[in-house]
Amino acid sequence: xxxxxxxxxxxxxxxxxxxxxxxxxxxxxxxxxxxxxxxxxxxxxxxxxxxxxxxxxxxxxxxxxxxxxxxxxxxxxxxxxxxxxxxxxxxxxxxxxxxxxxxxxxxxxxxxxxxxxxxxxxxxxxxxxxxxxxxxxxxxxxxxxxxxxxxxxxxxxxxxxxxxxxxxxxxxxxxxxxxxxxxxxxxxxxxxxxxxxxxxxxxxxxxxxxxxxxxxxxxxxxxxxxxxxxxxxxxxxxxxxxxxxxxxxxxxxxxxxxxxxxxxxxxxxxxxxxxxxxxxxxxxxxxxxxxxxxxxxxxxxxxxxxxxxxxxxxxxxxxxxxx
Length: 323
Fold this sequence. Notes:
The protein is an alpha+beta fold.
């Protein structure tokens, strides 16, 4: 789950390899939409000129094109996001977290290395960012993410909350069926080795069908390497199974099936299968608790930021024009 996407995106948009050529054409419209002072918090004002520089890299504003209403909405949300992020940095500092410029520099160098020579610097110039500003923004964003992760780690949803969520969202856990398989993989690289792999798979299959060996013993006898054996201990939903293995879902427990896939022959044993319907609670309990913790952490982060903004009498003048 993404936590507080606005906080992460605001005034820290990722730098793309190519400059948004249409930005300059849209700037006059955005300038006309913005009052001389676009926002105020804790008595400090953000002037239109400062905001226009920050807005040059915002994807939503660029996507609005010449749609004045869409651009006004995008600009309003960007201003909120910028101040939410600033509030988040203050909250992070109260937890003893500070932006790490070394991490910001590492991310800067990573993006610079991915771009063609000269493109990265040119893009920063278009966005009105110096190297130091780009590094600072990256460090700030990483700090906010660390603070959000800290809040999430403190959430402790219990079994009761998890079960309630499960019962209220059964459709969310629907599965087309699930299966628990044992697999012995016979890898191959070309037509010749594919024939040998197919022969080895057939020998193992016959041994199992005739009761000459157990599956556990077959794994030891025919799985030349540990990585070629996968004795699954948990159910795998049909929708998460590669198509070539789907026929196994039609077989009862204990049945054997060999299939050919790109690069291998696979011998399957159906340990157990389960019909379509909601996945059992025990299989999704951990996932639910993680989801609840993420949602609770995001809610706490948002509430803390909004509380700080309210205490500082935050005003977004695109939403509420000054009298």
